[in-house]
Amino acid sequence: MAGLFSDDDARKQVKQLEERVVKLEQTLSSAEADKEQYIRSTLDLQIQMEALNTELRKLRGQNEELLHSLQDAEKRQKDFYIDLDTRLRRLEAGDTAADRGNGTRNVSADPVSENRAFEAAYSLYKTENYQNATTAFRDFLKNYPQSVHEANVLYWMGNANFLLKDCKNSVNSYQSLINKYQDHPRVPEAMLNIADCQLNLNNKTTAKKTLKQLISQFPGSDASEKAKKRLAAIK
Predict the structure, then answer these.
(1) Which residues contact residue 120 at a Cβ distance below 8 angstroms, ignoring those fewer than 6 apart?
(2) Residue 59 in contact with residue 84, Cβ under 8 Å?
(3) Residue 171 phi, psi (nearest 5)
(4) Under DSSP, is residue 104 helix (H, G, I), strand (E, B) or coil?
(5) Residue of 71, 76, 152, 235 with fewest CB within 10 Å of its CB?
(6) Residue 187: which of 227, 230, 130 has the closest Cα?
(7) Mean pLDDT of all residues in the chain?
(8) Where are the beta strands (DSSP E) in the chain?
(9) pLDDT at 227
(10) Residue 25 half-sphere exposure, CB side, CA atoms within 13 Å?
(11) Which residues have a Cβ under 8 Å from the Cβ of 162 and sit 6 or more positions away?
């Protein structure tokens, strides 16, 4: 009986082992299936991500094209208005030039470039880059000697040199403005700055003469009122 019991017990153990092997195989098979499903899901996700990236790149390309088109449209619109403004100002300047006996001004072959050059030089001035501004203004006058911007360029170039404490070049620019554009609204301020330069150079007699001339020619102007105060302060 003991031998039979041992055989039965052994068979039970074998059966239990077989059952465990079956369960392990089932578990392994299930794990393999899960792994395959995970791999497929991962691949599907990667494919979706690649598709999304492709679509995103396409949308970015379209956005860049639209932005470029918008910038081109804005540039064309700006150039149109600059050109129109330049033509109108040339027509207005033509009468003044004729009154001075100089005839009509030459029309620039490229008014858009002319206006851009002026804006670039003036931008340097506005950002207090006075040294480069004076160079840009000087180059502008050289490249566009008959420009409708000439009076303003002379004034701002004088200011830039004035702020750089370069009185000689400052006075030269202001004086050119006064000589060529006697009725320009910036002339009183230019004369006032000329007087300040003359005072800085200890030319009191010449400064007094300039201030008196300013007061006489432009009575009631802000520059004239400042000139009176400066004149009274000169000892």
Answers:
(1) 136
(2) no
(3) -60, -40
(4) coil
(5) 235
(6) 227
(7) 80
(8) none
(9) 92
(10) 6
(11) 170, 193, 196, 197
Asked whether the beta carbons of 120 and 149 are under 8 A apart, the reply is no
Give the Cα separation of 64 and 110 in Å (integer): 30
State residue 146's pLDDT score.
85
Cα 99 from Cα 114, distance rounded (Å)? 25
Compute the distance between CA of residue 54 and CA of residue 46 in angstroms, rounded to an integer: 12
Could you tell me the two tokens for 235?
């000892």
Residue matched to tokens 């102007």: 221
**Three-state secondary structure call for residue 6:** helix
Q: What is the pLDDT of residue 173?
A: 96
Q: Token pair of 33, please? A: 């299936």
Q: Of 215, 217, 211, 216, which Cα lies nearest the Cα of 231? A: 211
In this predicted model, what pLDDT tens digit does every residue of 75-130 receive, in sequence order? Answer: 666 655 565 565 555 555 554 444 444 433 444 557 888 889 999 999 999 999 99
With beta carbons less than 8 A apart as the criterion, state whether 97 and 107 touch. no
Q: Pull the structure tokens for residue 48.
A: 């979706």
Report DSSP state, residue 105. Answer: P
| 170, 161 Cβ separation under 8 angstroms | yes
Q: What is the pLDDT of residues 11-32, one digit of tens each?
A: 777 777 777 777 777 777 777 7
- Compute CA 51 distance to the chain's CA centroid, rounded to the nearest angstrom: 37
Tell me the pLDDT tens digit for each residue of 187-210: 999 999 999 999 999 999 999 999
- 3-class state of residue 164 by DSSP: coil
Beta carbons within 8 Å of 139's beta carbon, 6+ residues apart: 117, 121
Q: Please name the residue that has the structure tokens 């001004």.
A: 105
